[in-house]
Design a protein that fits this description.
- The complex is a heterodimer of chains A (482) and B (337).
- Chain A is 70% helix and 0% strand.
- Chain A has 482 residues and is mainly alpha-helical.
- Chain B is 43% helix and 9% strand.
- Chain B contains 15 helices and nine strands.
- In chain B, the strands form three sheets. In chain B, strands 3-2-6-7-8 form a five-stranded parallel beta sheet, with helices on both faces. Chain B has a two-stranded antiparallel sheet with strand order 1-9. In chain B, strands 4-5 form a two-stranded antiparallel sheet.
- The relative contact order of chain B is 0.11.
- The chains are: A mainly alpha (482), B alpha/beta (337).
- At the A-B interface, α1, α10 and α20 of A face α1, α2, α4 and α9 of B.
Chain lengths: 482, 337
């Protein structure tokens, strides 16, 4: 159930939660969200449930103590504690047993760190209560795989705001008048939203994104994953070079639609309960270079690194040498964050090298040339970095690259017909995936998503996904056909 | 009406969900009975029934099916009893009987039995020498040309053999298909003809003659029915092939094992189940024109599990590992005369 593309989540948890959430009086809705999220998490990972609970309580206590204080030591201590918790469980999960890695720890720890920093810097205006902090850290739309929403966005929830907000007299001479006026507007907006029709509309809006995300995940990513698995079954040393490249494309698309689809579902569920839409993927493959790619890909992670690591370390303001070092640190941590194995470090380093070259070498070339190379980096080098990301065994990774670039010798027992065979089997998903890389298609959806024709398409898409999920559900043989 | 105008998708999804759920509940013990027996409603909502039915062409107004479909449900019910079936039908007592009969036969003079290169497969030795009035055949090494008039029937593993063992593929014929089972092997149209039509294996076997027919099937259906049921279906297939190909040597290949990682964690696809079924189909060999071959020794570790380094997904051989299977076949064949 911990997965959004799960029938139990779609037909049981989500509807029941939504009804419970909106039946709850406005001021207690955070409690409903908190309790619902705990239930959601406990079903998914009961063993590590106490870790989440403990981390919430400790972070709340520190935040309370740090509020309005300048105690650098205490602040450093909680940041280090959060970071150590993440590192410790990552290492335990990798080297002891996978079940020691609490579900979503990478995401909720990052939310905790960002919250501590924002709280310490007094970027958070009102003092958060325990229920605010707790619901923010573990809210089920984000607890498993993000997006890493900031606390300021949590506060924007329209359904937490009271319907009959008390009248306040705003003194226009007050220096905070603008801010207060703005707040007032948000409140008025909330008033309008927070009635039966407004609630249904919010659910409708969220549902549209949810269905699109579900389609990407179930119909595209899950099927592309089968092609990637088939390539593994053959053995990397035995795939033909064209199939190796097809595999790189397929895996890149799988990862993209899996995560973009997930992010849309998460954002959609968030919208249903009144949060603003969180953009996590913004057409990364239309980027002009890799640097831009990573501002558009998993944007909430990228901006987290920018705001809480890169800029505090000096960003690009302390000279070239320092900038390069900061970049390297950011990409090494990004690699480690994704996984503890060597390939993730290698992946982070290779992204660093590409961005370094773009920043310092590509600029010296004529504009036309650098533009072309930038595009090639995005469309060719990025898929290659995903191959590094995908294969954790270094011998197998080397085998795969030897097949991508067959200059170092032939493969073993290669069947040259494998490319045609797999293309014949998987062309519909590959083609749909490639078409969705064209930014205008998603823009079309965003623009006309309320038109009847899109409503009908989304309805069909939703039931097509349910058809696919139903036939995989409770059937251990579905994905194991030999 | 205003709700419908403002939230058409929500209304559509909710209304259809309610209708389909009602249908699923109402028909769970009629049209969808076979699915509801196997579905765990704690983890899967009822609504899945409608879609499961849809993919098999079963609709709310369909009569509850019998026969082929029922078998599926049966299998799931009985699978939990597999352990006890093991004791009942393939009990160690019976195995001892086999062993004894081998000894008796050996005493009668068929001394080659122990040297039989089938490698310690009791049942095979038993059947090979079970009838001492007939000629005793020994497995011997052959040339690749041996496979010029051979046919291979099987599931994805045999597909892999054809794709990644060029020397064999150039000589032998393959009627192999991913997810093929013993229940459907003869009547599923998948064999391509020259005019690009698809015919069944049964049709293909009435049109083309082969001197050797190798079969490896049984993994896809390992969760279906009992070992006895499986062996009976297997026997029917062998009988039909015998009828269509009176002169062919039929090789029943034991199902290839899975790795330890898979075997120790999977309720169905484990080597215990595979061995039970292999033992059952080994009994179908007669040592005269039907032989049992077990290639597992060429790919197993010392504990009888598929060697992990030969596979990526714990079930299929990697392309580079099919040579082992082929080498085994080259070294273990029956030559008559």
């Amino acid at each position: 159930m911990i997965n959004f593309s799960d029938l139990t989540f779609i037909f049981r948890f989500l509807p029941v939660f939504l009804i419970a959430f909106f039946l709850t009086p406005t001021r207690y809705r955070k409690v409903t969200l908190f309790v619902g999220s705990l239930l959601f998490y406990a079903v998914g990972d009961l063993k590590m449930f106490p870790v989440l609970l403990g981390a919430i309580i400790i972070n709340f206590l520190f935040a309370k103590a740090l509020r309005g204080s300048n105690n650098k030591l205490l602040f450093g201590f909680i940041i280090v504690l959060d970071a150590l918790m993440l590192i410790e469980f990552k290492l335990l999960g990798q080297f002891v047993d996978n079940s020691f890695l609490p579900v979503g720890i990478s995401f909720f720890t990052f939310k905790m760190i960002s919250f501590q920093v924002d709280n310490y810097r007094a970027d958070i205006s009102k003092e958060p209560k325990f229920i605010d902090v707790a619901a923010y850290f573990c809210m089920f739309p984000q607890v498993v795989s993000g997006p890493i929403m900031r606390y300021s966005d949590f506060e924007k929830n329209v359904f937490f705001k009271k319907n009959d907000s008390e009248l306040e007299v705003i003194d226009l001479d007050d220096e905070n008048a603008d801010e207060m006026l703005e707040e007032k507007e948000v409140d008025n907006f909330a008033d309008k939203k927070n009635n039966f029709a407004g609630i249904l509309e919010a659910i409708e809006d969220g549902l549209r994104y949810f269905v699109v995300g579900l389609g990407m995940k179930v119909l595209l990513a899950d099927h592309l994953a089968m092609l990637w698995k088939d390539i593994g079954t053959i053995g990397y040393e035995s795939v033909s070079t064209p199939l190796a490249w097809l595999g790189a494309v397929a895996y890149s698309l799988e990862l993209y639609f899996d995560f973009w689809g997930y992010s849309l579902m998460a954002a959609g569920v968030g919208m249903m309960i009144g949060f603003p839409f969180i953009v996590n993927f913004d057409q990364p493959y239309k980027s002009k270079n890799v640097g831009e790619f990573y501002r558009r890909w998993h944007a909430t992670l990228g901006s987290w690194f920018r705001d809480y690591i890169y800029i505090p370390m000096g960003g690009s303001r302390k000279g070239d040498k320092r900038t390069v070092l900061n970049l390297l640190v950011v990409w090494l941590i990004t690699g480690f964050w994704h996984g503890v194995t060597l390939n993730f470090i290698l992946w982070g380093v290779s992204i660093f090298i590409i961005i370094f070259c773009e920043k310092y070498l590509l600029k010296k070339l004529p504009e036309m040339t650098s533009a072309v190379i930038g595009r090639i980096n995005v469309l060719v080098l990025i898929p290659l970095t995903w191959v590094i990301f995908a294969i954790s065994d270094s011998t197998m990774l080397a085998d795969y690259f030897m097949r991508l670039f067959p200059f170092f010798g032939a493969g073993i027992a290669v069947n040259e017909g494998d490319f045609a065979k797999n293309l014949g089997m998987y062309w519909p998903v590959l083609l749909s995936g490639l078409l969705l890389l064209v930014p205008q298609i998603f823009e079309l959806f965003e623009k006309y998503k309320k038109k009847p024709v899109f409503t009908v398409l989304l309805l069909i898409l939703f039931w097509a996904c349910i058809y696919s999920l139903s036939n995989a559900a409770g059937n251990p043989f579905m994905y194991f056909r030999f | 009406m205003k709700i419908f105008k403002n939230c058409p998708l929500l209304v559509g999804v909710a209304a259809i969900s309610v209708i389909l759920s009602i249908i699923s509940y109402a028909c769970q013990s009629s049209a969808y009975s076979e699915y509801s027996e196997t579905l765990d409603f704690a983890s899967t909502p009822h609504i899945a029934l409608v879609f499961k039915g849809l993919s098999d062409g079963v609709y709310p107004w369909s009569e509850p099916t019998v026969g082929g479909e029922e078998l599926f449900a049966d299998g799931r019910n009985e699978i939990s009893e597999m352990g006890s079936l093991d004791n009942d039908e393939f009990s160690s007592g019976e195995k001892n009987d086999d062993a004894e009969s081998v000894i008796t036969v050996s005493a009668n003079g068929s001394l080659d039995v122990s040297g039989n290169s089938v490698s310690g497969n009791d049942s095979f030795e038993d059947t090979v020498s079970g009838n001492d009035s007939e000629k005793v055949y020994e497995l011997t090494a052959v040339d690749p040309e041996y496979f010029n008039d051979a046919l291979f029937i099987g599931d994805s593993r045999t597909v892999g053999l054809s794709e990644y063992c060029k020397e064999l593929d150039e000589r032998a014929t393959f009627y192999a298909k991913v997810s093929l089972t013993i229940f459907k092997v003869l009547n599923t149209p998948f064999v391509k003809t020259e005019n690009n039509d698809k015919i069944t294996v049964e049709q293909a076997l009435s049109e083309n003659q082969f001197a050797k027919i190798y079969i490896m099937l049984g993994l896809n259906e390992i969760g279906t029915g009992t070992p006895e049921y499986f062996a009976n279906a297997y026997a029917d297939v062998i009988a039909k092939i015998r009828e269509l190909q009176p002169d062919a040597i039929i090789y029943i290949q034991g199902i290839m094992h899975v790795t330890e990682a898979k075997s120790s964690t999977d309720k169905y696809f484990n080597n215990e189940n595979i061995d039970i079924r292999n033992e059952a189909i080994a009994q179908l060999a007669n040592g005269q024109d039907i032989f049992y071959l077990d290639m597992n020794e060429s790919v197993d570790d010392e504990n009888g599990n598929l060697l992990a380094e030969l596979t990526f997904d714990d079930v299929h051989l990697k392309a580079s590992s099919y040579q082992r299977w082929y080498d085994y076949l080259l070294g273990h064949a029956i030559v008559k005369q």
